[in-house]
Amino acid sequence: MNEMVMGIIGATVVVGIIGIVIGVLLGVASEKFKVEVDEKETLVREELPGNNCGGCGYAGCDALAKAIAAGEADVGACPVGGAPVAEKIAAIMGVEAGTKVKKVAFVKCKGTCDKTKVQYHYYGINDCRKASVVPGAGEKACSYGCMGFGSCVNACEFDAIHVVDGIAVVDKEKCVACGKCVDACPLSLITLVPYDAKHLVQCNSHDKGKDVKAKCDNGCIGCTLCTKQCEFDAIHMDNNVAVIDYEKCTNCGKCAEKCPVKVII
User: Fold this and answer.
1) Dihedral angle of Cα 190, 196, 201, 206, to the nearest 10 degrees
2) Structure confidence at residue 237 as a pLDDT band (50, 70, 90)
3) pLDDT tens digit string along 165-186?
4) Reported pTM
5) DSSP structure class, residue 128
6) Residue 219 — φ and ψ, nearest 5°?
7) pLDDT (mean) for 250-265
8) Strand locations in 85-213, DSSP E?
């Protein structure tokens, strides 16, 4: 019996010693190989929303926090957090937040089902990227317009864009300008514009006027009347379609008033 007790005690001692040795080794290793984390990086990460949407251009919130702490990214780089988060991060970094213009996604197409012509009936996969490589790029006659298959809708994590009457429509109040819908559109129909912009050209067609009218009743015909009305040099024709310079636009509305097809909304 004594031998059994002594055996148990001996085993317990051995296990205890091994545990102590392993603990010491782990402690030494943790100190030797630990990665120093900038305190500012930790504080910045706590202020970021944690969506990891990639709208800032980085892999996620952790990567953005690291870049901001290192001075490689702007304190207002998070599109989801916007100005409130930018101000908090600026305080952590000891810099001025600056003025950041809020932006939202905008779809440059007004070719709803009742206004655009149909060239054939498409029965393929409901995905814009896949449909863009088939002959005619979908059933709509205008090859520059929204196909309406909703790749942008699937890309949005904020439920801010939906297909309505054949075209994608953005909910300004939900949009955080992450840019995922912009990347998802194979026709580059979606762009980021200032939230306060009151006049937008809802067309992307580069066809000439006659060809535009043959395909869509809501397309820009390139008449240049809008450019002639602008007193601030804020709207120009680019490859047969009107384009607004939002840095110069004063939202006077004269371009929209003169547009004969009412494509400037």
Assistant:
1) -40
2) very high
3) 999 999 999 998 888 999 999 9
4) 0.71
5) H
6) -95, 155
7) 89
8) 103-107, 161-164, 167-170, 190-194
Residue 39: Cβ within 10 Å count: 10
Report residue 101: phi and psi, to 5°: -75, 125
SS3 state of residue 119: coil
Is the pLDDT confidence value at 124 over 70? yes
Planar angle of CA 190, 246, 48, nearest 5 degrees: 65
Closest CA relative to residue 155, chosen from 195, 190, 115: 190
The encoded tokens of residue 22 equal: 């392993």
Q: Which residue has the higher pLDDT, 257 or 9?
A: 257
Buried b (16+ CB within 10 A) or exposed e, 119-146: beebeeeeebeebbeeeebbbbbbbbbb
Q: Could you tell me if 107 and 184 are in contact, meaning their C-beta atoms sit under 8 angstroms apart?
A: no
Residue with the two structure tokens 């009412």: 262
**Do 78 and 126 sit in the same domain of this protein?**
no
Give the position of tokens 């969506």.
Answer: 51
Average pLDDT over residues 118-135: 84
Closest CA to 250 of 203, 201, 197: 197
Q: In the listed set 195, 216, 237, which residue is the last one of a domain according to the structure?
A: 195
Please compute the mean of the pLDDT values over residues 201-223 and round it to a whole number: 90
- Coil, strand or helix at 46: helix
- CATH number of the domain to which 165 belongs: 3.30.70.20
Residues 155 and 179 sit within 8 Å (Cβ to Cβ): no
Same domain, 214 and 169: no
